[in-house]
Design brief:
Length: about 110
Amino acid sequence: MSAVEQYARAHLVTDSSEGHRAVPVVLHYDPEADPHAVRIGLPGSHDRVFARQLLEKGMRAPAAAGDVHVWPCGRVQTVVEFHEQDGVTVVQFDASALIRFLRRTYATVTPITH
């Protein structure tokens, strides 16, 4: 099994005058490290790791687990929100990039259902 890494563009949503700022992100999945987790790398900060299943569910309807919230925003966007001690980071993705990433992760390893 090999890792999946995909580069994408997203919008970092802030309450500053910048509003939405386009940023490069790295979507990463390593089934050998953890077959249930995905990682999102944002510029200038630590990677955020959370359940792949949460990302998938949140693309269809609002979903949350711990400090990570994911929800569809219209028909073509998905929002991922990270709650941390020093504030909230909100990242808006084109859903098509996340769908492509998830498809690649499932092609790498079969999902485990309960």
